[in-house]
Design a protein that fits this description.
- The chain has 401 residues and is α+β, with helices and mostly antiparallel strands.
- It is built from twelve helices and twelve strands.
- A hairpin with a 2-residue loop joins strand 7 and strand 8.
Length: 401
């Protein structure tokens, strides 16, 4: 029982820490952009539900930590809920109420009556903060630890594989894959694993000459468990040659930007393939999957360290790398044009900028209901994937068999 509790904490604690960091930075992006635009903020919350801690500062902002650590929000002056959805009575009634209660100065500090470009700036600031966080974390890791990667030189080609059919040979050095520059075998794996069934162009170096090859990676299960993720597989192996590099601040920043861009483009491509049905949506991870990943990464860092000091260092570095990747994902997902997400707000603001009037309140309200249903459905589907992957249903069924 004690071992089970410890294992639970190994997964829960890293998950909460990583998610809290990413969400806090996202919401701080909204917060600071709002303050820069002169918008009053009523509440800054990390987590949902009843507060387990709250404090109101001198400017009137309530800082809160909710008991459900799965997100957060910034509530602006005049908001009726955390999604910044205007009252169904419309902005006219809200304007009259604010003028009567607080006067024209309060109206100037209200989010809903700011120019559309300022509201758009506040909306985009959250995802932008996530991308900046990812760049900062990757830069910090490159500066602190350098880079230790496997060479992109091919050590072996499996007979009958996609790589063999395309003409890959042992000794080839992969320079590009699907238009992305390749500097390590890990880079190559990231490209290939989301391109199962997709014709992919490669640039390789062989005997001092650059050659172009085209291969179609094959889908394969990571393991034999039912519901385990499918990834693209080329059928090649590395030489085992390890490349070590150190970076100064400028180089580390360049690498951080490049790494963030690589994660973003891979994520966009994978989501696009899921939407078009070219890639199974069972790849999606929900909170349970991310928690499992957090625990595994934390344990890997602890197991690789020789003493307590290095355990803390390795676990911290691994979790910061995970936070950077997760931050890119959350930044991208929030830019999707789905009402209740930042991208949905931007979509409505784009209409307002073109039409020179806000979208009808009833249409906005309907859009937010549909958007909320889509987000909840996506979360439920991802959680179902997690439960399948973790074999929870088989475990429960075994209790009654």
């Amino acid at each position: 029982m004690l071992a089970l509790a410890i294992d639970f904490l190994w997964h829960l604690a890293p998950f909460v820490l990583v998610l809290s960091l990413v969400v806090t930075v996202h919401e701080l992006g909204h917060f600071f952009a709002a303050r820069a635009c002169g918008i009053d903020v009523e509440r800054f919350s990390i987590g949902f539900g009843r507060p387990i801690w709250s404090h109101r500062d001198r400017s009137g902002v309530e800082w809160r930590v909710g008991w459900v650590p799965l997100g957060g929000y910034v509530m602006f002056a005049g908001d009726h809920n955390a999604a910044s959805v205007p009252d169904a009575a419309g902005l006219k009634a809200m304007r009259a109420e604010i003028l009567a209660r607080e006067g024209p100065e309060a109206l100037a500090r209200n989010y809903h009556f700011k120019p559309v470009w300022q509201r758009a700036l506040v909306a985009v600031a959250g995802p932008a903060a996530n991308f900046l966080l990812a760049i900062s974390l990757f830069t910090l890791l490159f500066m602190s630890f350098g880079e230790r990667t496997l060479s992109p030189r091919i050590g072996a080609v499996q007979p009958g594989s996609a790589a063999a059919s395309a003409g890959f040979q042992a000794g080839d050095i992969v320079l590009e894959a699907a238009g992305r520059r390749i500097s390590s075998f890990q880079d190559l794996s990231e490209v290939v694993q989301v391109r199962g069934g997709a014709s992919t162009d490669f640039v390789i170096e062989r005997g001092g000459r650059n050659l172009r090859l085209t291969a179609t990676p094959e889908w394969t299960r990571l393991d034999t468990k039912p519901g385990s993720p499918r990834v693209g597989r080329l059928g090649i192996g590395p030489t085992g040659e390890v490349l070590r590099r150190t970076f100064g601040p400028a180089e580390a920043l360049s690498k951080g930007i490049d790494r963030t861009w690589g994660v973003l483009t891979t994520s966009v491509y994978a989501i696009g393939r899921m939407v078009t049905g070219q890639m199974s949506a069972e790849q999606l991870n929900g909170p349970l999957g991310i928690a499992q990943m957090s625990g595994q990464i934390a344990k890997a860092g602890a197991d690789a360290a020789p003493d307590l000091e290095h355990k803390i260092l390795y676990v911290g570095a691994n979790l910061l790398a995970l936070a950077a990747v997760l931050s890119v994902g959350i930044g991208f997902m929030n830019l999707l044009p789905i009402p209740v997400l930042d991208g949905g707000h931007l979509l409505f603001y784009a209409y307002e900028a073109v039409a020179r009037r806000p979208l009808a309140a009833s249409v906005q309200a309907f859009g937010y209901r549909v958007g909320l249903a889509l987000v909840l459905a996506l979360m439920l589907f991802a959680t179902w994937n997690d439960l399948q992957r973790l074999r929870v249903f088989q475990f429960v069924g075994g209790l009654f068999s």
